[in-house]
Task: inverse folding
């Protein structure tokens, strides 16, 4: 059988998704059960342990197909948004699914137990999280699960940001976090994914996936002086967004944050560790 990418293939030697029968070898197959992320954000880890590598994060409102759970509270499943597979805290997931109506469009907001900013928040909710609004009272949107979020922090689910570079700029100063997807911490591909998703462009999670799937390659045919706002510059294991022909914005471990960096300085610096850009892609 042909090897499948384990990052997006819910298959282990002992267990695999039912739809993979005949494509992978496993001792048992299951259809899984749909769950929804009810926490503001939830870690998706390589192994069922709080010390395991953080591969990505799931945001409130995302659907997860759960194929396995452990006695100590871990759920193994696949995100519907980008197909990523990993282990999530089962306590961060709710039964069944619901139809979201709105999404968070500010860097981060709070959910309250009632319609008052003086109440202690029940959780913080990141940019891009999805919620189901059932009504409104005063300045608050009332959510299906009983929470309250300031109405000004939400937009209808179908709202599309016109400039995804501007979306990325909202993350300026965010600490670098491997596997992160929010303004508490984000990595290079997480920043690109968040910005493009807000722009209405479906985006895979990791840099190699993004390099294969997004836009069209213009490098090496195009000169670096021809770059346009929104072009994506890829290296092996890294991606940056062109802010203007002279400037990049990217989440990077050199600055340990989302930062602007002069294009030619970044290319010279990264060349020392990871070589020249592997491609430049334009939407």
Result:
């Amino acid at each position: 059988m042909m090897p499948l990418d384990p990052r997006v293939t819910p298959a282990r030697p002992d267990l695999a998704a039912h739809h993979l029968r005949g494509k992978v070898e496993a001792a048992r197959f299951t259809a899984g059960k749909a769950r929804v992320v009810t926490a503001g954000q939830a870690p998706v880890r390589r192994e069922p342990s709080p010390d395991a590598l953080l591969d990505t994060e799931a945001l409130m409102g995302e659907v997860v197909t759960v194929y396995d759970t452990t006695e100590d509270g871990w759920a193994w499943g696949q995100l519907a948004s980008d197909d990523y597979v990993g282990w999530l805290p089962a306590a961060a997931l709710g039964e069944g699914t619901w139809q979201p109506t709105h999404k968070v469009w500010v860097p981060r907001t709070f959910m309250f137990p009632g319609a008052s900013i003086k109440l202690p928040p029940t959780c913080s909710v990141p940019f891009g999280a999805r919620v189901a609004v059932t009504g409104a009272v005063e300045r608050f949107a009332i959510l299906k699960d009983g929470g309250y979020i300031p109405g000004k922090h939400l937009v209808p689910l179908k709202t599309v940001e016109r400039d995804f570079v501007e979306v990325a700029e909202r993350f300026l100063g965010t600490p670098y976090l491997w596997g992160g997807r929010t303004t508490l911490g984000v990595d290079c591909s997480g920043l690109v994914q968040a910005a493009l998703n807000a722009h209405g462009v479906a985006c895979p999670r990791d840099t190699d996936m993004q390099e294969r799937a997004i836009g069209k390659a213009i490098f090496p045919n195009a000169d670096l002086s021809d770059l346009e706002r929104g072009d994506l510059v890829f290296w092996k294991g890294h991606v940056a967004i062109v802010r203007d022909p002279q400037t990049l914005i990217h989440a990077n471990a050199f600055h340990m944050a989302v930062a602007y960096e002069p294009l030619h300085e970044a290319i010279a610096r990264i060349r020392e560790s990871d070589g020249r850009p592997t491609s430049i892609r334009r939407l």
